[in-house]
Amino acid sequence: MRFNHQLIKIGIIGGGQLAKMMAQAAKKMSFYITILDPTPNCPAAQVVDRQIVGDFYNEDKIKEIVLDSDVTTYDIEHINTIVLKKLVAQGHIIHPSPGLLEIIQDKLKQKEILSNADIPVARYRKVDNPDKLSLTLKEFGFPVVQKACKGGYDGRGIFVIKNENDIKKAIQAESFLEEFIDFEKELAVNVARNVKGEIKSHPVVEMIFDEKANICNVAIAPARIKKEIEEQAKKIAIKCVEVLDGVGIFGIEMFLTQKGRVLVNEIAPRPHNSGHYSIEACVTSQFEQHIRAITGLPFGSTELLTPAVMVNILGEEGYEGKPVLKGVEETLSIPGLSLHFYGKAATKPFRKMGHITVVDKNIEKAIEKAEKAKSFLKIIADN
Fold first, then answer.
1. Prediction pTM value
2. Which residues make beta-bridge pairs with 33?
3. Domain map of the chain by residue range?
4. Per-10-residue mean pLDDT, the chain, length 383
5. Which pLDDT does position 138 carry in this prediction?
6. Shortest CA distance to 78 belongs to which of 20, 147, 156, 177?
7. Around Cβ 212, how many Cβ atoms within 10 Å?
């Protein structure tokens, strides 16, 4: 793509916080941004040039945004790939490709492609018939992880079968079983690749999940791991994106096992929660890197300027409605802290409403400050 910032128009399918932060990065270079989202005044709508209000599967609306953009991308996986593939065949530019997106949408297909490319993954087996789940269980024993092939997002579509009693609560949809990994840490790497095949990766980060919601709640950069593990994780993450022939930025989620093995868990074909820290802590954020990748611009440096800890601000249990952010003054008094509030119209339990990033030359001090901020900052509802 020939670069002329006055002419390039970027379309983003989806208008959530990821689209908002993509748009903020793109607007630094004065790109014209259009989003497609069913919710008027969604988070991204607050910073872009134009919003098309429509469903992610609405063929006419998807055609409208793609035809009005020089390049189209997305911040969500669950969109209409059939129409996107037709538009690519007609010469329109969409990154990552709809074909890649179809692979990501089906977690079993994703797992098979990675496994066939000799990328290390947990042992898995398709559940051919939900009624015969117990037969497949015999191969794994308890506990075992059941994953829906399609539709899972932010912890949904995943169920841990701990014993015989859990079988009746199992996912009643096309699914597969995956070995339960007794991991030491959960890791993530953000990898960007452009149409020339050039690749740049951000630092390896350590993720800590909220057990109730199964959502990545904390990201620590850099991950507290040995150098050889860091290099292994980066090498595997880069191979994943190469195998998929991806263009854009990808969040590669991984397990570090107790025996020191790195296994790929899942891949997100977009900016990832684990990379939010990069806005404050890296020369080039994951969001700017994605914009550079899809528009054909040279990659920026991914150097980590300072250790950082990112913490999600989740909606409190017991509250639904118009969000109220409590503890802002106490939180912002913490040195090195930045607050991102997404501007969602309603809160509900465990919904991602924003995040904080704390930078400090000492990673343990950054963790302490982040924990302090978590005790201050709460999202309740104004009913």
1. 0.94
2. 10
3. 9-94, 123-179, 183-382
4. 67 98 96 97 97 97 98 96 98 98 96 97 87 79 91 76 89 90 96 96 94 83 98 98 98 96 97 97 98 96 98 95 96 98 96 97 97 96 82
5. 81
6. 156
7. 12
- Please report, as a single letter, which amino acid is at residue 79: I
Identify whether the C-beta of residue 66 lies closer than 8 Å to the C-beta of residue 40. no
Q: Which of 221, 179, 219, 217 is nearest to 204 (CA)?
A: 221
Q: Sheet harboring 32-37: ordered strands across?
A: 50-53, 32-37, 9-13, 71-74
CATH of domain 9-94: 3.40.50.20
Topology alike, domains 123-179 and 183-382: no
Measured distance CA(135)–CA(46) in Å, rounded: 51
Q: Is the peptide bond before 38 cis (omega within 30 degrees of 0)?
A: no
Report the greatest alpha carbon distance in the chain: 61
- With tokens 């570090």, the residue in question is 256
Right CATH number for 123-179 from 1.10.357.20, 3.30.1490.20, 3.40.50.1000, 3.20.20.150? 3.30.1490.20
370 contacts 235 by C-beta, under 8 angstroms? no
CATH no. of 183-382 = 3.30.470.20
> In this structure, what are the phi and psi dihedrals at residue 340, rounded to the nearest 5 degrees?
-120, 115
Sequence-distant (6+) residues with CB within 8 A of 360 are: 306, 307, 308, 335, 336, 366, 369
How open is the CA angle 30-31-37, to the nearest 5 degrees? 130
